[in-house]
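Quick start: read one record
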Amino acid sequence: MTQANRRLLAAAALIVALPLVGHANEGFWPFNRVPRAAIKQALGVDLSDQWIERVQQASVRFPSGSGSFVSRDGLVLTNHHVSLDLLHKLSTPERDLAGKGFLAATRAQEMKAPDLELLTLQKIDDVTGQVNAAVKPGMSSADTLAARRAAIATIERDAQNGTGLEAEVVTLYQGGQYHLYLYKKFTDVRLVFAPEFDAAFYGGDPDNFTFPRYCLDMTLWRVYENGRPLVTKHFLPWSTTGLKEGDAVFTSGHPGATQRLNTAAHLEFLRDFALPLSITAFSEVRNALDAYAKRGAEQERQAKDDFFSIENSLKSWKGQIQGLKDPALMNKKRTDEATLRARVNANPELNAKYGDAWDKVATARQSLPPYNLERVFFEGGLGPYSQYFSIAQRLVRWAEESLKPNGQRLPEYTEARQTSLERQMASNAPIYPGVEQAKLEAGLTVMQQRLGPGHALVQQIMAGKTPAARAAELVAGTKLGDAATRKALLAGGKAAVAASTDPFIALARLVDPRARELRTKYDNEVLGVERDAYARIAQAVFATQGDSAYPDGTFTLRLSYGQVKGYVEDGKMVSPFTEIRGLYVRGDEHKQQPPYKIADSWMKARAAINPTTPFDFVSTNDIVGGNSGSPVINAKGELVGLIFDGNIQSLPGYFVYDGGVNRALSVDARGMLEALEVVYQADAIVKELAASSASAPR
C-alpha cells in the first residue's frame, strides 16, 4: 500500500488529538520530557542521559511504523507488516518476497527498497514562541491558522537549509506547544531478511488483536551510506538473557493520533459520523480486493498488501467504535471533562481565558456533518480511491502550490517537502492496474451511494457510466504507473499538468476546485477554531494540574514504560508468555488449515528447535498504531522484544488507557534469535548480532 493511501487510511477517521495527564505506565513521552521520577517510582529504574540518548538515536521511523538499529553495521529491525508494502514493491510474479520470505546470504545479495526513507531523530527544539509570534491581536481563527502555517513553513525551510537535516514542526497539545524535530534521513535501505507471511502473521485475521499469539512478525533491513553499510554506535544490543514476568520494559516508537482528552462532543462526532463512514467505505474496498484476489494466485499476491492493511484497519476501527459506545468509557470522559471545566470555572481568571473553549469545539463539530461527506470523498480522495488518483492529485496540487510563496502553500507542499515528493514520483515500484481498478470501483460505488447519483460533481466524475465501467476506463487510459511520465509532469509544472490528457490528471483537475473549497471551509470553520480552542484547553490542564500532562500521539518519537504482565480475560488468567511449542500445538489442533497452517520451514525445523523458547509476550506498555515495529528495551538498554500488536482490550486505548487489561504484544528476542538460527539458518545475521552485542556499551 502506498504512503499516500496509508495516510488516507490513517486520516479516514478524521481524528484530532489532545493531551492527557499521565498515570503509572501510561503515556507517550517525548524524549525531551522523559518522566524519570515517575519511572523511578513505578519501576525502580533510573534512566541515565546516556541511556536516553542512545535509545533516541537508535530509534527509526518507517513511513508507516517504527524500527530500531540492532547492530553496529546498520542493521534495522521492524515488523513484517510494517515492511509488507516494501516487500510487495520488491516482489515479482516469479519471486514473492512478501509471501515466501527472503534471506540475503551475503551483503551483496541485500535488495535496495525503491523509495524507502528512514528517519532518525537528532534534536528537538521548542519553537512555540516563534510560531505564536506570528499571531496578532484581533485575528480570526482562520487568520491565526494561516499565520501559524506560514511561520512553520519558514522555520522548517530555514532549519532544513541550515542543518541539512529533515525538519518537521510538530503540533503538540493540539496547539499548546510547537516543537521542531530534526531528523537524519536515510534513502539507501536494503532488505536482509523476511520470514514467510504465514509465519509473520500466523493465525491471520481471527487471531489479530488477540493473545496468546505465535507470530514471527519481524524483518531486518540494512542502512547504507555512501554505498557502504552505515557504521553506528547508536544501536540496541540484542539480549540473550531475556525477560521474566514483572520486569520493567520500555518501548521507543511513533504512536499515531490518539484522542485521550478530546471533548465529549468531538468523540461523539467520531462515534456517530467519522468511524461509521470509514467502516462502511473500507468494507466495500476490502470486499472488492477479496474478490480480485480470488481470481488467481497472481491476483492474490498483488492485492495482499492493500487487503491486509485495510482488514487490519477495519478491525481496529470496530474496536474503537465499540469503546466509544461503551457507556462506562463515555461517562468517564464526560466526568473528566466536567471536573476540568469546574476547576476552570471556579477561578475567574482561568474562566475568562479558557471557559468557552469546550463550547467552541462543540459548535465546530456540529457545523461539520452537512459537508463532511463531500470533504471525505473529494478532498480526502475516498471517492476516486486509487493510487493513480493520489498521484494525480499531488501533481495537480504541486503545480499550483509551487507557484505560491512558501508560507502560503498547503503544509504538504512547502519547500521542505519537495525532495520527498520528487523521490515518490520517481519510484519504480510497481502499481498493479487490476488492484487499482478494484479499489476505484469500490470507492466510486460508495461515493455514488452516499452522495447520490444526482449530485452534480458525482455526475461529472461518473461521466454517465457505472462504477465498474468508469473505473475500467480510467485505469485503462492512464500512464501514471510509469515513473518517467510522473517525473516529466512534476518537472513540467503547471503548463505540463494543464496540457496533460491523462484521465486521472483530468479527473484531479475536475475535482480540485470543489476539494479546495471544502478544505478551506474545514480549515477555517473547524480546524482553525479547534486549534485555538484545544490550545486553551491544554493551557487549562497545565494551569490546574501542572506539567504532568503528556501530548497525544502525533507519529513522532515517544517513550513508554511498563512491565511484563499477564491479565484476566473471561475470568481466566492469561500468562504473559507463549512458547514455540504452542505454535505446533495450535497448528495440529486446526489440522494445518489456513490461517493456522505452519510454514514449511518451521515444520522442517520441528525436531531441531527448542520448544520451550519464549515466542511472544505481553506488557503494560502504552502503545497504539504507529508503534508497530517499536523495540522493547530492558533497563540495561538491550533489545528484548519487538512490538507487533495490541490485545482487543487495547483498542479503546485511543481514548483512554486501562492498565488492568491494555496489553502490548511483542515478539520475544529469544524467539526471534532461535528462529534465525534454527529455522532459517541465518548464520551471518546471528553472528553479527552477537558480535555487536558483545562490543556494545552498557
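The radius of gyration is 25 Å.
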